[in-house]
Amino acid sequence: MTAKLIDGKAIAAELRQSIRSRIDDRIADGLRRPGLAVIMVGEDPASEIYVRNKRRACEEAGVLSRAFDLPSQTSEEELLQLIGELNDDTEIDGILVQFPLPAQIDPDKVTERIRPDKDVDGFHPVNVGRLMIGGNEVKFPPCTPFGIQEMIVRAGVETSGAEVVVV
Per the residue annotation, which of 93, 118, 119, 121 is the catalytic one? Predict the structure, then answer.
């Protein structure tokens, strides 16, 4: 069996263009633009790159992106309050809180505060439970495995009985 190199960047660009077209159609039909809130607390260099790339992808895809860059001194209560406001915001469909968080903030409380239907990472206990039992009610499946599956499908790779290495 020969190896097959999958061009993830090309697939991502194609997906963003397809999503942009679908969003443009929604807007033409009088519907609102989908919205994502991205929250980053502190200044982790790797997180800054990841979040910058998410924001750029949203822009390319035509998704409303709201950025919340909070100082590392932000209290847990302040962060939970912001998440609560975003949970109630009708223009926001998904919430992403970038980890790691500063030591004064409990990541479990943050994960549980995000409404399951707005949990972009799929980390809320309700979503993890639904995923484990094979439920179809998970709005946002965990992005890394979902993305890998999407790349394999789009590349036309036959996986039945195959051994796979993901780098």
Answer: 121
pLDDT tens, residue by residue, 127-150: 888 888 876 677 788 788 888 888
| Terminal-to-terminal C-alpha distance of the chain | 18
Is 121 assigned a catalytic role?
A: yes
The question of whether 54 is a catalytic residue gets the answer: yes
Element (H, E) at 148: helix 143-154
- 123 vs 61: CA distance, rounded Å: 24
Q: What is the pTM of this model?
A: 0.86
* Confidence check: pLDDT of 166 > 70: no
Residues across the chain: 167
Amino acid sitting at position 114: I
And the tokens for 95? 């919430």
